[in-house]
Amino acid sequence: MIEVRPFGQINKHPVYEVILTNANGMYVSSCTLGCIITAIATPDSKGIIENVVCSFDTAEKYKQYPQFFGAAIGPFAGRLEDATLEINGVSFQARANEGHHLLHGGNDGFHNQLWQFETGVSSRGQFVKYFLNFESVDFPGKLNMSITYTLTAGNELIISYEGISDTDTILNCTNHSYFNLSGNLKRTIEEHALKFSSRGMLYIDERGLPLGNIENVVGTILDFNDKKYLKEVIGSNSTQVKLASGGIDHPFLLEKNEIELSEEESGRKLIIITDEQALVVYTGSKISSGYSFKEAPAQNFLGICLEVQNVPNSVKYKHLPSSIIKKGIPYHHETIYRFTNL
Could you confirm whether the keyword Isomerase appears in this record (predicted)? Predict the structure, then answer.
């Protein structure tokens, strides 16, 4: 079933929410502001269907609390140091939106755009496809972009990114959902367990910027090659954890394309399968308080972002994989979010 309903207004322009529901009762909702995922509702081990992401109930609240909750991120995910980028030997100066730096595409990034959409059913499942002709003074070129959310009969959310530019430019997309498998934000993520294959990561400095050296992660507190509970990391005395406000906000280079997140009390498990090279883990150490999501008051560590993408800050470090796309050459990446039980 596909439903479309009003979701508020931004600058007097209507925002619409699209809800995809499969035969199992799982549903995924998203909206035309920033392609924001406004809910993912999945069954726990007892079959109780609850929301597993941090969500608000209107577009206006997403604008009021701008921490990229559920949003599509682009043209460049992560931080660009000093808001500068270089393409083909030419330097471009973007407008900083985090101190002197550019975070998640800047103030005109994908998350702040109103997207057009169409819905339908394919061989894979129900889908909503969002479209945007993107042009910004912060990035060279005109970008024709689409992002498709497909809900399958097997309780999978598939996110497909497609883009093409009229000039060489930079493009590195991800989704910024804050996952909490307890259901309806009943608990923090500290009892969640995380596992993925990675031998190398990038450390961050005191500004949160990824550094250029690939550091060995094996045997350290940030080693997730074997299942590790987030409570083992959050609040530890590690210098890197302290630099990330007591949590994790780091890029890891993926050895395999699969990431697992689970929570034993609910029995929920999320398996992420991606064609991207890196994973930025952010444990929500700056969510803060004084406001509320749909189901619970906000607090630090109430959600974890698993941002599959290319390596952030790669423009500065030439030995890291490039995020430059060539004129007229299609950009395509796809990630599967498979929701199951332990």
Answer: yes
